[in-house]
């Protein structure tokens, strides 16, 4: 037996060939590889890692029938470039074969009038199933749901069920659980396909059925859905309304996407950005988006400057204070963000409750004070060797302890406050804590200096 | 039909009852709920969101036979507390029923001598399958792999295959793909279980088989494995050695865990921490861990202070410089971290290559310069209104443009440099970029002030 190149190795090779072809301009080869070798997810990757001019070339070379799947794999920001130039009928055709939730995701990016036109261009049956999902926001179970459920009644036998499957044109790609419903589509139970395969064909479905099936309420928060899939090792789960009637199901591939987006989001949010932003966005769009975050920071910076401004007279007499002041502020910022980060993670994981917040707060304050003492000795010593002024070293050492104390309190309380105000602590927490530790640090250091060195 | 509480609602209720029981000390109820109602993942959640004394109570109440599964769900840092007190035989018994990769993950946390003792306490067959996986680090496919594959030969019929399944004591919980191998266990192809269900029982497996099956080389990086599951919507995938012989398979539940850990890691790394760290770690452990990160930052802060120290004479004449200097530095820090973040995300997604890095670099520099110009006007104006000194406003405006220019260059080059040095840019990038923009900001601002205001 001769060794073949594996499938993924071939795809990786063709991916590089397309990149090279785009650089050199030998487009007939690129066209072939795009339409006959690369899967949609790889074409989406290719587009996302291309510059804007190359993207237009790829899009033009790509057959219309593949465009829907590629669109559903693209980050919103990138998809928008192509969506705005597609006619409603073109979009309806391109997305016809997609999963319901993927079509809904794309349509939700469009202006409402355009969505209506695309829906109008669909076949009646498609329109119905898409409209059903479109009603749900994509941050609840309903928005993640597909309508490709396979259901049977409880009284039939395994043999009848298997015969029924063979008569279906196609089973869904992910099919691990058979859903058992009554004549009104109320969910009665579930049977793992596994058990179907190992059971006597004469067995009744009812006797294999899990009568306390895991089902997801349609309005469940999507983060909770993801956590359920993770904890229960699910491959798919039925979605029901408040009366227990079956509406659809969620499959693990969408949960993997959700977690991947969350991971991306956690990278991006520390600079005030989100996962849907395009790496290769044009200059002006980039500049405008970043200006917002810079403006917020500018307000914070001016507040810190204003605090320093209160002590101009003190600095005039002791210029060393201007040299040392960033140390107190920046150590506080780091310590505050350490406390903040452990709190944000705990909030995301739902670990905080009334019974443990007191313990956590006290632990943070004590760890902050201990590090405050440790670094105050170190920084005090260095300051003394540098400026040979004993009282100055005492001032910076005291300010450091106080600011690391402020930092631990700010780090714990800020995310709790932001969560109460329904503002994402991961996004706004950093700026807020840093502002508090900057203001606190400058005020403590320069204030103590005024009292001890001047007064 | 009366409405029952759904399974997840019952678990959530019992979870709260356990929390309340631990607070009030009514432990007999807690013992019952832990051992008869809550699934292992929820017990792990409960432990992770409890304070250290409560954890010991929960652990003692938990039956030994459930401890293995709970251990496998705990973050390493938390699991370590319990592992260090378990005898080798106790650990071997507790983990006997776990998936191979989960046992390996636990054993890899132990000292080598203890691992050998636990292996020695296992049955011969268990030991063999665990040792096979233990050989692989957990950041490659081999470490994610289980040995619970179901294989058939290509010449048998669907009917024979189905009969074979019924004779097995149990099919694996996730069973979406049948693996077809030759007599030497070389992977020949795969058949989706779907197709098995819808095919004529007389069909030969060979004719249903995908002859270019998706298989994963055992040494594939685990991040690449995860990305493959995400792109191909996989539920499971066979793992092969370099000659194509079947070694095991990876299932999507482990990929979901991987992405969840990655999301957690991206939260934690911005404060120099990682996902395995315990939220409720004791004070001294917390203090020591954070001191490392604070020390690194302290070095950076002293470098910035040293730069300011060069210009003491200038500040003595213009104290306003001490007031305004943090603005230039902090705006640079924010802008630098914006560029850094977009680069880190692009690196994680593998979007950067020789063909587009030039475009990206130029886009970053131009966006940085544009925002530099925009904010220099704004900050210059405010500085003028504040200090009524024209040249001072010109100095801060110029410094801001230069520092945002420095920031964009540092933001792009730092992560590329760190990647070359095999240092994680997401961990070290922030400190490095901030140091560069602090040093650059203070030097430019105070340097220009010396030239223009004094010179």
TrEMBL record, chains A, B:
Main location, first listed in the record: membrane
Keyword terms: CBS domain, Cell membrane, Magnesium, Membrane, Metal-binding, Transmembrane, Transmembrane helix, Transport
Domain CBS: 145-208, 209-265
UniProt subcellular location: Cell membrane; Membrane
Superkingdom of the organism of origin: Bacteria
Transmembrane segments annotated in the record for this chain: 291-311, 317-335, 369-387, 393-418, 430-454
InterPro entries, per database record: CBS_dom, CBS_dom_sf, Mg_transptr_MgtE_intracell_dom, MgtE_N_sf, MgtE_transporter, SLC41_membr_dom, SLC41_membr_dom_sf
Membrane topology: Multi-pass membrane protein
Cited PANTHER family: MAGNESIUM TRANSPORTER MGTE (PTHR43773:SF1)
Cross-referenced NCBIfam families: mgtE (TIGR00400)
Family per record: Belongs to the SLC41A transporter family.
Chain's role: Acts as a magnesium transporter.
Quaternary structure, from the entry: Homodimer.
Name of the protein in question: Magnesium transporter MgtE
Origin species: Corallincola platygyrae
